[in-house]
Specification:
Layout lengths: L1 H20 L13 E7 L5 H14 L4 E6 L9 E3 L5 E3 L1 E3 L5 H4 L5 E4 L8 H11 L3 E7 L11 H7 L2 E5 L1 E2 L6 E2 L1 E4 L15 E4 L1 H24 L1
Parallel strand pairs: 1-7, 1-8, 2-5, 2-6, 6-7
Antiparallel strand pairs: 3-4, 9-10, 11-12
């Protein structure tokens, strides 16, 4: 009996996750207000893939769609948002969040990729657009390589109506991963990269890697002091 109940609960739980991940809303015809959807998670978790999926569905429904990304992100192409699976959609690169307001006139749906790289004004921009009746879909890393909340993402998640957290698969354990571990030595906060620079890790694997790095730093410091 307990096993049967556990199975039923597990099925219901996974069904709830599935419904939450693929939640999509129709245009609000009763009130002239939109909303904010945030898709967050680690690198290689499918954030951009889900963003593109939602935006293409809106385009298919003949809604007017505009997509933005920070101009600093030139990993694939200047005017394309591209997922790791090479799914892509045309976009407008902008140097700052305030520029989005200039292009978002008479738009039904606004998509924003790599939101963690924008300045803090991205929060007010998204809320202003939602208050004007726009559906705003934002994708970004929720944590930086140190495991700290990344840029404006916490504020975006707090003010959004819907938040979807997606997960990668840990390269060390095979479990769910939500940390982005930087494999190269670079203390800058923003380092654009792919599989050669980053890997997704579970909490346990990430903790072990950070311990190794800290131990290596201490050994290097001790060697320097001895010299």
């Amino acid at each position: 009996m307990k096993t049967f109940c556990a199975v039923q609960i597990s099925k219901a739980f996974h069904k709830a996750i599935e419904l939450n991940m693929f939640l999509e809303n129709t245009v609000n015809h009763t009130e002239n207000f939109g909303w904010i959807e945030v898709i967050c998670g680690s690198m290689f978790s499918g954030k951009t893939e889900e963003l593109i999926r939602r935006l293409k569905r809106a385009q298919f429904a003949k809604q007017t769609v505009e997509i933005f990304k920070p101009a600093v992100d030139t990993r694939y192409a200047d005017e394309l948002v591209v997922s790791h699976d090479e799914n892509e959609i045309r976009c407008t690169p902008v140097p700052a969040a305030a520029n989005i307001r200039l292009y978002a006139n008479e738009i039904d749906v606004v998509g924003i990729d790599e939101a963690q790289f924008f300045d803090d004004e991205i929060v007010s921009v998204c809320n202003d657009l939602a208050n004007m009746g726009v559906r705003v879909i934002v994708a970004g890393l929720d944590m930086d390589y140190k495991g700290n909340p990344f840029g404006p993402m916490p504020a975006l998640m707090a003010t959004a109506e819907y938040v979807t957290k997606v997960h990668a698969v840990c390269t060390k354990t095979g479990n769910l991963a939500h940390f982005s571990h930087r494999k190269v030595h670079d203390d800058r906060l923003v380092v654009l990269g792919e599989v050669h620079e980053y890997e997704p890790l579970s909490r346990a694997a990430y903790f072990r890697e950070r311990q190794k790095e800290e131990q290596a730093r201490q050994e290097t410091s001790n060697d320097s002091n001895e010299q």
